[in-house]
Amino acid sequence: MNRSQRLAMKYFTAAIVLFGVMVVTGLLTATYYLQDGLLLNRLDFSTAKILHINTMILWLLMGFIGAIYWFLPLELEHETVGVRLGEVMFWILCAAIAVVALVFLFVQYGPARETSLWFINQGRKYVEAPRWAAIGIVLVVAVFVYNVVGTVIRARRITGIVAVLLINLVPLFALYLIAFPAITNMAQDLFWWWWLVHLWVEATWEILIGCIMALALMQLLGTSRRIVETWLYIEVALVLGTGILGLGHHYFWIGTPAYWLAIGGLFSALEPLPLLGMVVHAVYDAGTHQMKTSNKPAFYWVMAEAFGNFIGAGVFGFMMTLPQINLFSHGTQWTVSHGHFAFWGAYACGVIAVIYIALQKARDADVLNGRAWKWSFALLNLGMIGMVGGLLISGMAQAFYERAMGGSTLDAFMRGQTNPWFVQGVAVRLAFGLLFAMGYALLVYDLLRIGKRREYPLGERREARATM
Amino acid sequence: MTPQSLLLSAVLLGAFVLLAGAYALLYCVGLLSGRRELTWASYTCYGLQVAVAFAVLVATPLDWWWKALVLASAIVYQRIPPVVWRYLHTLHLSTKERACSRTL
Amino acid sequence: MYLADPAFWRAGAISSTAVMLVVLGFLTVDSLAVIRTGGANVPPYTVIDREIGYAFDDAAGMYRPVIGGEQPLFGRRHTAPEAEALIDKGKLVIQSRACIDCHTFFGNGAYYAPDLTKAWLDPAWEKMWMPMTQAGAREEAMVMFLMEPQKYPTWSRQMPNLRLSREEAEAAVAYLKWMSSVETNGFPIHFGHIQQN
């Protein structure tokens, strides 16, 4: 491994640790729904939720950054420029995350002054981290961009994939600046906030994971560069072609003009189409290789990515996106159901796949296979399906009882929350969340052990390879 | 939109896209394995998808333009698996040809 | 075949993205004009001294906010700068206490606590909290609740005490009143009216 790849491994490790924090805080947030008064005034729902969603964003981002540090020197045939500085920034990032988390846990909030936003909590969803930390993230990402650009320049080489990646990093970086302002007018606040959130997770992150998957497929299946590049361009065209104006599906109810109902609804309804294309591509790739690969877990996680993305983002999204439905489903557990499944399918599966790809090389293993990864794969995916299924029931109950029947008042909210269907749904969510957590524990176990050289004769290893 | 029609409409819309996925999966696996029954299963899924689109048309209170969109996209969803499959196949072939011609 | 040429699709990616971004640009400029304070959909902050309602508009075919006559908030009239300062403070309260991580605003946020878009209009203030707090006005009941939620619970899921000062609580209430006047294309549908099935 070169230095950049060792840095990638650090990022992957941190990512998996944060994934674990996300799971624990997720279980905690789920429990509040079933246990009234849990930790009231000591660790309220909001704090647990903040930790849960922020660690989600961070672990995925760290996975992406790690993936780029891993693939870049291979792609450009040059060690990453400024990697030492990248290492420093990694440790600074970890320290900042720890401090922010401790402040969230033990200070929680401050008075209604700018200093609270600077040092404690900014109170905007996903970007609650205080401004000092947001500046830190900007610096870390700036160094990361420098690493990538510097390597391109020094190597005097650029590929189609790296070009797309580089161009994509510009809006990805610029959009994060929306994390800073405190805008009084909630309509304006949410308008810009959605530029950040949607154009991250339904545009620039899609391109980023597309680049990473392109690089991964070349390694995993030996797919030719020309094919992955062509496919990447097609993806960019279709994903951004539908996703940019698909932003409008967040502009139905926040004070924006009514034309967004038509525009947002239309483009949002088109978003599943490219995802179906990706499913076809995934099956094609699986088929042409007859499911044979020297890295079984990575291969299966790549497949999970294509299917999870289609079902979580495509199916679940389409179910609730048309304005006449969304009027009732907006801001309920239905949204939570879709959100969890979409993030899982679109990003989490891909990051896990890349980690397995890196591990194979890092441990110099001819073949990666075993039992633990299969159990982990099954438990994580089943856990996720169960969770989103439970949340879908709860969400539908909420839309039905609280919104459609109840008129969305406090009384209606209470009736929705205490409705037996709702309660069953969130109980099922917690139960499957525990399954998911078991899957996570097994994932960690497997990542720590898989592919490590064991002391056994050459013949046995050859035999192990032959049965793959 | 009554509460019941809300849930019915949402379930139909979700089923619409899910069946598109089932159709695509079975179609592709049918091509790979050469098993005719899988290809027929895929067409059945697509038939069900069309039936769901029809149900959206007659049984939901969605505005007419959304219904039109669902019907139009039913046609597009049918084309995606064969078109994309054929395209990928051609792409792989042409890439192989280029690689071969370079080595000659 | 040109469809197998990456350059063809590269051009497609660039043009499709560019066209969509340009359209987004135009729509953004238009939307910003509509959502600015005092724009078509967002009343100026001085609306806090007016009566605010929510009723079905036959012409529009949806529920819309209705701005009525004078209704000074906290019994006092606010000048435009005073109203702005109060609403600015209200937003700082909402952010500093991370309200959006339990509640939703225009349906955005977290789903553990009720949506606050029309909280100002919630019948519970008159039905439950005014009797509980013995407050003479809705906004006073809201302030008392926000300052000491543990004293006035209405069901088993309780709001935590976020140690709001009187000034902060008043600012938050003013914010909620202003927010209920924003045109949201009919969200939430038929607020306060129960549909008989």
Q: What would you say this structure looks like, in words?
A:
The complex is a heterotrimer of chains A (468), B (104) and C (197). Chain A is an all-alpha fold and 468 residues long. Chain A is built from 17 helices and no strands. In chain A, helix 11 (296-321) packs antiparallel against helix 13 and helix 14 packs antiparallel against helix 16. Mean pLDDT of chain A is 94; it is low at 455-459. Chain B is mainly alpha-helical. Chain B has one domain (3-78). In chain B, helix 1 (3-33) packs antiparallel against helix 2, helix 1 (3-33) packs parallel to helix 3 (64-103) and helix 2 (36-59) packs antiparallel against helix 3. The longest helix of chain B is centred in the last third of the chain and has 40 residues, at 64-103. With 197 residues, chain C is an alpha+beta fold. Chain C has helices at residues 6-35, 80-96, 123-133, 138-147, 166-179; strands spanning 50-57, 62-70, 104-105, 108-109. In chain C, strands 1-2 form a two-stranded antiparallel sheet. A two-stranded antiparallel sheet of chain C has the order 3-4. In chain C, helix 2 (80-96) packs across helix 5 (166-179), helix 3 packs across helix 4 and helix 4 (138-147) crosses helix 5. The termini of chain C are far apart. In chain C, 44% of the residues are buried. The model of chain C has no long low-confidence stretch (mean pLDDT 96). Chains A and C meet through helix 2, helix 4, helix 7, helix 8 and helix 9 of A and helix 1, helix 2, strand 3, strand 4 and helix 5 of C.
Give the SSE layout.
The complex is a heterotrimer of chains A (468), B (104) and C (197).
Chain A: H1 3-32, H2 45-76, H3 83-106, H4 114-119, H5 131-155, H6 160-176, H7 186-221, H8 225-246, H9 259-270, H10 272-288, H11 296-321, H12 323-329, H13 333-362, H14 372-405, H15 410-418, H16 420-449, H17 458-466
Helix pairs in contact in A: 1-2, 1-3, 1-16, 2-5, 2-7, 2-13, 3-5, 5-6, 6-7, 7-8, 7-13, 8-9, 10-11, 11-13, 11-14, 13-14, 14-15, 14-16
Chain B: H1 3-33, H2 36-59, H3 64-103
Chain C: H1 6-35, E1 50-57, E2 62-70, H2 80-96, E3 104-105, E4 108-109, H3 123-133, H4 138-147, H5 166-179
Antiparallel strand pairs in C: 1-2, 3-4
How would you sum up this structure in a few lines?
The complex is a heterotrimer of chains A (468), B (104) and C (197). Chain B contains 3 helices and no strands.
